[in-house]
Amino acid sequence: MKNLNEITNKSPFKVPENYFEEFNRRIINSTSGLPNNIKKIGLYDRFKPYLLIAASVTILVFLSFAAIKLLGPDKNKLQLSEVVNSEFSESVINDLDISTLEENVAAGVMNEDVPDVSKTDIIDYLLKDNIEISDIYEQL
Amino acid sequence: MSIIKPEDNISDVLKMDLNKGFRLIVEKYSQRLYWHIRRLVILHEDADDALQNTFINAWKSMGDFRNESSLYTWLYTIATNEALTLINKRKRNAAISIDELGSFFTDSHEGNTYFDGDEAQVKLQNAILQLPEKQRIVFNLKYFEDMTYEEMSKITMTSEGALKASYHHAVKKIEKILGKD
């Protein structure tokens, strides 16, 4: 008896003539129209990637707009550089009231600017304005 | 209308046109799967039935395989299962069992018509039929189709080590049977 290695491994079986051509035709015909488990791609699935891109762009634009709105300069507020110096000075002077000035004087804020004047100089100055000496002493 | 070229990747064609992709699969694999099934079930009529069921099941579950590299093993798995189902059905119902097929090659009309092996091949087929189911599958895939153990492992869901052991045992048994004759 032959050894296994000496026996050809060629298939000893035969098939009817044109079997494979006919089989292929038969199987293709029998499966056409037969349902399968492949998920049908609907309109939503087809456009899903584009919808995701559009949604991302919309969110990005919205966030950028919100960031500019929240963190950017307020157009209703005047910039410091836009205020003319004279206007600033006038508004500051007009806004000051007498009580604030008195407070500043009381606190000695203005003392530094007041020159050192003697009592006799003040009396002389007031006498020149025809103020009564009795009144002057009363005040001093 | 798209035209399928031989070099087209089946997976790509399937994505574009399922029917044309399936036609490519049938044309590419029907012969290989037929011979695989035929070696297991022996009879042409049975092989034809099992092959038809293989492709119908493949069509029905087309969504289960991911790419062309797994298509080959996926189809072989379906074909093997279909062949085994048919063998088990025949064991229960049919007049001819797998054990009686030994004399089939020489004695029956179909045996004479669809078998053209020499005496040594008849004896080899008889010896293969005496192997346990798993060893028959492994022996056929290795000896006749020269399939790698890695591919066989995917088809049979068995480790490569176990498959190598199965093939070794199968060869020993066949040689023992052939040595007796």
What does this structure look like?
The complex is a heterodimer of chains A (140) and B (181). By secondary structure, chain A is mainly α. Chain A has a domain at 116-140. Chain A has 6 helices and no strands. Chain A has helices at 19-31, 43-71, 85-95, 98-106, 119-128, 133-139. By secondary structure, chain B is mainly α. Chain B has 2 domains: 1-96, RNA polymerase sigma factor, region 2, helix turn helix motif (Rna Polymerase Sigma Factor, Chain: A, Orthogonal Bundle), CATH 1.10.1740; 117-181, Arc Repressor Mutant, subunit A (Orthogonal Bundle). Chain B has 10 helices and no strands. Chain B has helices at 10-16, 18-41, 44-60, 68-92, 101-107, 109-113, 119-129, 133-143, 149-156, 160-180. In chain B, helix 5 (101-107) packs antiparallel against helix 7, helix 7 (119-129) crosses helix 10 (160-180) and helix 8 crosses helix 10 (160-180). The longest helix of chain B has 25 residues, at 68-92. The N and C termini of chain B lie far apart (61 Å). The model of chain B has no long low-confidence stretch (mean pLDDT 82).
